[in-house]
Amino acid sequence: MNAILTGGFADPSTQSAHAFRALLEAMARPGRIFTVAGAQPPAPISVAAGVALLTLTDSTTPLHLAGDADCEALRGWIGFHTGAPLVPAEQAQFALGGWEALQPVTRFRTGEPSYPDRSATLIVELDRLEPEGARLTGPGIQTEARLSLPETAAFRANRALFPLGFDCILTCGARLAALPRSTTVEDA
Amino acid sequence: MYVAVKGGERAIDAAHAWLAEERRGDPSVPELTVAQIREQMALAVNRVMAEGSLYDPDLAALAIKQARGDLIEAVFLIRAYRTTLPRFGASRPVDTAAMAVDRRVSATFKDLPGGQVLGPTFDYTHRLLDFALAAEGTPQPAPMAPAPDEPVPHVTGLLDRDGLIEQQPADDTPAPDLTRQPLELPASRALRLQALARADEGFTLSLAYSTQRGYGRTHAFVGELRIGRVAVEVELPELGFAVEIGEVELTECDTVNQFKGSKSEPPQFTRGYGLVMGQSERKAISMSLVDRALRWQELGEDFTGAPAQDEEFVLSHCDNIQATGFLEHIKLPHYVDFQAELELVRRMRREAVQMQEAAE
Amino acid sequence: MSQSSQPETTARREWISALAKAPPGRLAALLPDLPAHEMLRAPEIGTVMVQGRIGGTGVPFNLGEMTVTRCSVRLSEGAVGHACVQGRDKAHAARAAVADALMQTGAAPQIATQVLAPLRAAAARARATRAAKAAATRVEFFTMLRGEDA
Predict the structure, then answer these.
(1) CB–CB contact C72 A10 (8 Å)
(2) CB neighbours of residue C5 within 10 Å
(3) Rounded to a whole number, what is the distance in Å from the CA of C146 to chain A's nearest CA?
(4) Which 8-state DSSP code applies to residue B237?
(5) Which member of B179, B245, B254 has the closest CB to residue C20?
(6) How far is C69 from chain B, CA to nearest CA, in Å?
(7) Helix (H, G, I), strand (E, B) or coil at A127
(8) Which residues contact B35 (CB under 8 A, 6 or more apart)?
(9) Nearest-CA distance from A39 to chain B in Å?
(10) Would you put residue A104 in left (φ > 0), alpha (ψ -120 to 50) or beta?
(11) Is the CB of A17 inside 8 Å of chain C's CB atoms?
């Protein structure tokens, strides 16, 4: 019970504004790693994923929980702090889980030609998030960025759908980076 | 085309300062308080809440004060404020049959359960200016009478029993929300009603009037008009059940319209519906007439080209904030556009002169 | 939900509603001193979308929003209280949440008689006064002449 009711923003308007700014910056500069604070979600969810949920979801944003994330404690925490309705993957506007648990990622919404925004944002929990590995290029990246992605094929397939496609927020501890659909991903 | 220019900050600051001074008016006259506006300009407050699409009388009163009584500017302030607030959820649909009615009249039935209740209406006033109000004073207390402890059912239910009026069966289709998704046509009736509930009263009134004058005629009677308070019930996830968190004042209008019948439906009465925040019966009646006119396709009627039947025309132009935003932007600097126009006109004149000279 | 049929749920639903609908000043006067409590969710202003039904009975549609303030607290002995009140008064939301928590402790009988009962009585009086004024404007028709044209 305690884990459900605690761990939200203590000062929601200021903390969510800071967190939103960090998420916006992350989306604008794919691959760059940002540190965020203010959320203590129940295990096994990272601080960064908790911050993203508190900032981006509410009762009008259907959320899918995959794998370990689909636990009693987190369902209660989300119900109390954000009110986001929990839905199957195909209906989700946001999804949370490890990369394996989110598979196949092709089931998430990628938008429609006239409304590419009607797509899912995946919050991907990673064991490590470092500026090394896969090579990222595209809008928001001056030359290239490097990011330790779990794979590259799925992101290349997603890039091929542009302007449709899903967007990703990669989280690890208190750190996060974003990988929007506009980014070109190549093997290291 | 827009061009970023700098400069004018000092002029803008001075304009704001003067605006503040003009807003206050003659300092020898006492300043209005927000509470005075809320209590004594209640129908203006209601209009700002309805068209601002946010029920909060204190905020609407503040907006009216800030806007110097310009109600569309006040609606604009409320809409802007609304966008800064998180939305915690949606209420359960309000039960207007359980409304604590201040006013309830029917133009179709004289005797009905719950009676004809006039409420605090302007209807039977003589529309003569009351100079007594120019002086301050406390009005006589309103008379009271024993309130019968009986339900006040919807009038349309009386016709419903005989199968003479179209049914509105309960349904739990999630309501579309035009504040979250861009408007797509054709719009469902639920989406049209959301747009009309926050639409400009003047625009809605004129469209409704046009249907009465023959542009998409629907032969409407006011089946029932009711004004009063309803409880707002919200499901709180932390509790796991719904609780009443407050009350809102609403105006509801159900119109009854002639209907010859179609291939699938027998001759019966059809309905138009209006529901507006606050006490605003002109708007509620207008809304129900426009709602009914927009239903021509669903009811198998002819499209006569009337504006009130044209969903795209109505829904694209009913919002006074969209309208005023686009209208008023043309007064902002368009120096580059106009320079291009000027060049074009000069060139055409030159060419016209040259052609004339060549012809001579 | 299914719990809502349980009597304790009904009772809690009623007191949460009475606290939410209370005029903030009146609630503050009836419950001036709050016991020590921890904010689980600090008072936060937001909105609720109010829905209606087409024709009063049909398909739901969005009428417009209303302002609300919500708050959740925990008393030192562990009771958790929630509030979601109309308007933008943070002190009202906090006080209502504390009162909800107190209603789950040994202080319940005292809160019920000293806070909830006067609130309910005042709400009933206000409602009755409005209903009586409305009743005075109820039209009593009487037939002046009824007949057939000759």
Answers:
(1) no
(2) 9
(3) 60
(4) T
(5) B245
(6) 9
(7) coil
(8) B58, B61
(9) 18
(10) beta
(11) no
A2 near B CB under 8 A: no
Q: Which of the residues B81, B91, B238 would you substitute to probe the A interface, choosing the one with the greatest number of A C-beta atoms within 10 Å?
A: B238
Of the residues B241, B290, B315, the best mutation for testing chain C's interface (the one with the most C CB atoms within 10 Å of its CB) is B241
- Pairing between β-strand B54-55 and β-strand C60-75 as defined by DSSP bridges: parallel
The number of residues in chain A equals: 188
CA distance B215 to C116: 56
**Rounded-to-integer distance, Cα A26 and Cα A6, Å:** 27
Q: Residues 6 or more apart from C89 whose CB is under 8 A from it? A: C24, C69
Distance between CA atoms of C59 and A133, rounded to whole angstroms? 53
Contact criterion met (CB below 8 Å) for A125 and A67 = no
Distance from CA of A83 to the nearest CA of B (A): 7
C44, closest residue in chain A (CA to CA): A12
3 state SS for B176-190 = CCCCCCCCCCCCCHH
Question: At residue C149, what is the residue type?
Answer: D
Q: Predicted confidence band at A13 (pLDDT cuts at 50, 70, 90)?
A: confident
Domains contained in chain A, CATH given? 35-170 (3.40.50.11310)
Contact C80 A5 (CB under 8 A): yes
Give the domain ranges of chain C: 2-124
pTM of the model: 0.90
Q: Quote the tokens at residue A167.
A: 């967007």
Angle between helices A12-28 and A47-56 (to 10 degrees): 100
Neighbours of chain C (3+ CB pairs under 8 A): A, B
Hey, is the C-beta of A83 within 8 angstroms of any chain B C-beta?
yes
- B256-289 per-position pLDDT tens digit: 998 777 777 778 889 999 999 999 999 999 999 9
A59 touches chain B (CB under 8 A): yes
Contacts of A39 (CB under 8 A, 6+ apart): A7, A8, A9, A47, A50, A51, A53, A54
Lookup result for tokens 């979250």: B180
pLDDT score at B2:
57
- Cβ neighbourhood burial of B298 (10 Å; 0-12, 13-18, 19+): exposed
CB distance A120 to A93 below 8 Å: yes
In DSSP notation, A43-86 reads: TT--HHHHHHHHHH--TTS-EEE-GGGS-HHHHHHHHHHT-PPB
Rounded Cα gap, residues B145 and C133, in angstroms = 6
Q: Which positions 95-124 of C are in contact with B (Cβ < 8 Å)?
A: none
pLDDT tens, C32-78? 999 999 999 999 999 999 999 999 999 999 999 999 999 999 999 99
Task: Name the band, by pLDDT with cuts 50, 70 and 90, for residue B32.
Answer: very high
- Cα C86 from chain centre: 8
Residue A27 tokens read as 């989306």
The three-state secondary structure class of B301 is coil
What residue in A sits closest to B91 (Cα-Cα)?
A59
Tokens of C113: 């008689």
B139-147 contacts at long range (C-beta below 8 A, 24 or more positions apart): B142/C133, B142/C136, B143/C133, B143/C136, B144/C129, B144/C132, B144/C133, B144/C135, B144/C136, B145/C132, B145/C135, B145/C136, B145/C138, B146/C132, B146/C135, B147/C128, B147/C131, B147/C132, B147/C134, B147/C135
Give the nearest chain B residue to C65 (CA atoms): B54
- In single-letter form, the type of residue at position A11 comes to D
Interface contact flag, A59 B87, Cβ < 8 Å: yes
